[in-house]
Every structure is written in C-alpha cells, then in structure tokens.
Amino acid sequence: MALHKLFQLSTLLRSTVSLTVRRNVGLSAVLFNKAKNLDPIQQLFLDKIHDYATKSKAAPGGIVDAGPSYKKGVAEEITKLQRLYGTGDLTKFPEFKFTEPQLQEVAK
C-alpha cells in the first residue's frame, strides 16, 4: 500500500516538474529570440511594416503610394456615381431621418 502511494506521489511530482520545464523552455525560447538578431527575412518584413506605418500616417486619405492615375480613377468613379444617383457628397455615409408614424385608434 505504501508503495502504491509513493508511486502516485512520484507520478504527480513528475507531471508537475514536466509542466514547469515545458513552460520555462517555452518562455526562454521567446526571450532568446528577442535577444538575438533576427534572420534577414524577418528583419526585412519588420522593416517593411514599419515603413508602411510611417507612410500611411503621412499619406492624405490613408492610401499609401497613390499615384495620379489612382486619384484620377477615383474622381471618374465619383463623377459617374453623382451622374447616376444625383448630387451630394459621396465620400460620406448618408444620414437617415425617420419620422415617427401617426397611429390612429380604430374602433371595433
């Protein structure tokens, strides 16, 4: 009986140690990757992301590297839509105004 209890305790201790070791190895791997230099592909990817973020903050309208042909195309499409659906600012979401209906009581 005592041997059985000792075996259960050792199994519990082994699983606890195993879990702790796995967690520490996972955490140390993340810290190790941050501490060392990234490989060139990862570094290039991060550089492009940072470059795009700075360009998107500086670009008017939020469109990065929009050339004159893109702006001309957008202007043509807005002109087409205004011709089809009437005048107004097509760059804003429309505002809807709903009136409360007049209800009348009907006699039975």
SSE order:
HHH
Sheet-strand content, in percent, reads under 5%
What's the alpha carbon Rg, rounded to whole Å? 33 Å
The helix content is 55-70%
How would you describe the shape?
flat
Number of strands: 0
Mean pLDDT across all residues, rounded?
A: 80
Number of distinct helices: 3
Summarize the structure.
It is found in: Mitochondrion; Mitochondrion inner membrane. By secondary structure, the chain is mostly helical.
Protein described:
This is ATP synthase-coupling factor 6, mitochondrial. InterPro entries: ATP_synth_f6_mt, ATP_synth_f6_sf_mt. Keywords: CF(0), Hydrogen ion transport, Ion transport, Membrane, Mitochondrion, Mitochondrion inner membrane, Signal, Transport. Mitochondrial membrane ATP synthase (F(1)F(0) ATP synthase or Complex V) produces ATP from ADP in the presence of a proton gradient across the membrane which is generated by electron transport complexes of the respiratory chain. Belongs to the eukaryotic ATPase subunit F6 family. The chain is an all-alpha fold. It has two domains: 1-36; 38-86, no CATH class. It is 66% helix and 0% strand. It contains three helices and no strands. It has helices spanning 2-35, 40-58, 68-85. The longest helix is centred in the first third of the chain and has 34 residues, at 2-35. The protein is flat, with a radius of gyration of 33 Å. The chain starts with a helix and ends in a 23-residue tail after the last helix. The model has no long low-confidence stretch (mean pLDDT 80).
Features of this protein?
0% strand, 3 helices, 2 domains, 108 residues
